[in-house]
């Protein structure tokens, strides 16, 4: 079960990056009227070299470039919002919200913090594993502060006109450049979840002999084997086809967060904790686990229903 949840979560992340890159690329080339499907194909072709990844070294390099692009874009948007501070109004911070949109948003929030799927690999690669809890707490706190500040500044600047893609609110002369930077960020983000999902599938399907990306094939001692290429090709094609079917990336984020995100972050940890330590847990610990588990189930079910409903309406 945990393998299926991992693969689905990673596949949805890959699909999300394809949807984002295609949408932003189409918006950036508005004067040529390029359809989103053509932009999806361009992104798909750009990502074909991912089939030949042999280890985490190129993935880490691409992830570093992605982080630099993310910091640059965030600072650019924040500086623009601060430059418009003279027009801020607290009336734009309305608490009124449509219930269905709120439930989808809960899934999006859960999805944006589901780093658990990468944490075991990260902890195993650390030189000083004892520092893992401190690293985890500090990075999540920093992410929470950054995301809250970013969204708050955006709402103060654009109010009810705030788009689900914040950069769509930027001026016409600045938006194409920022969108192209976001396209680069999305494409650079794709290899990490793709490689992780491919490794899981290769281990499960190829059973050791061909599971490694580096095998003694015709191309040499470090060539990628044919079975590995088939698994990776199927994964890449699946994410591409899903990206063609999804009309809005926010709905995909909400759907993923409601299903696998809630399962990984809220449901499964409580289930495992109760199952493994039931006799050693006190009444307070059991009640806490049950409360979190119940919250996760409610968020998952309600978010799934609302996200699917809007996805069907958008098809």
UniProtKB/TrEMBL annotation:
Belongs to the amino acid/polyamine transporter 2 family. Signal peptide: none annotated. It is found in: Cytoplasmic vesicle membrane; Presynapse. It holds the Pfam family Aa_trans. Residues 4-305 form the Amino acid transporter transmembrane domain. This is Vesicular inhibitory amino acid transporter. The chain crosses the membrane at residues 7-25, 31-53, 65-90, 102-122, 229-246, 252-278, 290-312. It comes from the Eukaryota. Antiporter that exchanges vesicular protons for cytosolic 4-aminobutanoate or to a lesser extend glycine, thus allowing their secretion from nerve terminals. The transport is equally dependent on the chemical and electrical components of the proton gradient. May also transport beta-alanine. Acidification of GABAergic synaptic vesicles is a prerequisite for 4-aminobutanoate uptake. Coiled coil: none annotated. It catalyses: 4-aminobutanoate(out) + n H(+)(in) = 4-aminobutanoate(in) + n H(+)(out); glycine(out) + n H(+)(in) = glycine(in) + n H(+)(out); beta-alanine(out) + n H(+)(in) = beta-alanine(in) + n H(+)(out). It comes from Merluccius polli (Benguela hake). GO terms for molecular function: L-amino acid transmembrane transporter activity. GO terms for biological process: neurotransmitter transport. GO terms for cellular component: cytoplasmic vesicle membrane; presynapse; vacuolar membrane. It is a multi-pass membrane protein. Keywords: Cytoplasmic vesicle, Membrane, Neurotransmitter transport, Transmembrane, Transmembrane helix, Transport.
């Amino acid at each position: 079960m945990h393998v299926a949840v991992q693969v689905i979560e990673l596949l949805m992340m890959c699909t999300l990056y394809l949807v984002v890159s295609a949408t932003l690329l189409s918006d950036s080339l508005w004067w040529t009227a390029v359809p989103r499907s053509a932009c999806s194909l361009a992104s798909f072709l750009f990502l074909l070299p991912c089939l030949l990844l042999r280890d985490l070294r190129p993935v880490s390099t691409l992830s570093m470039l992605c982080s630099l692009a993310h910091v640059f874009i965030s600072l650019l948007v924040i500086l623009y919002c601060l430059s418009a501070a003279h027009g801020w109004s607290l009336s734009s911070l309305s608490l009124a919200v449509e219930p269905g949109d709120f439930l989808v948003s809960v899934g999006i929030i859960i999805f944006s913090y589901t780093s658990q799927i990468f944490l075991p690999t990260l902890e195993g690669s650390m030189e000083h594993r004892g520092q893992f809890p401190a690293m985890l707490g500090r990075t999540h706190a920093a992410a929470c502060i950054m995301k809250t500040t970013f969204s708050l500044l955006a709402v103060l600047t654009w109010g009810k006109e705030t788009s689900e893609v914040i950069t769509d609110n930027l001026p016409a002369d600045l938006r194409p450049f920022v969108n192209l930077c976001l396209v680069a960020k999305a494409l650079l983000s794709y290899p990490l979840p793709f490689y992780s999902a491919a490794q899981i599938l290769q281990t499960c399907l190829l059973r050791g002999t061909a599971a490694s990306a580096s095998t003694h094939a015709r191309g040499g001692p470090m060539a990628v084997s044919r079975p590995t290429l088939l698994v990776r090709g199927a994964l890449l094609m699946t994410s591409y086809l899903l990206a063609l079917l999804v009309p809005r990336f926010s709905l995909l984020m909400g759907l993923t967060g409601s299903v696998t995100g809630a399962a990984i972050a809220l449901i499964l940890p409580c289930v495992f904790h109760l199952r493994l330590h039931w006799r050693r847990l006190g009444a307070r610990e059991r009640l806490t686990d049950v409360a979190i588990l119940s919250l996760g189930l409610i968020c998952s079910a309600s978010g799934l229903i609302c996200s699917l409903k809007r996805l069907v309406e958008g098809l």
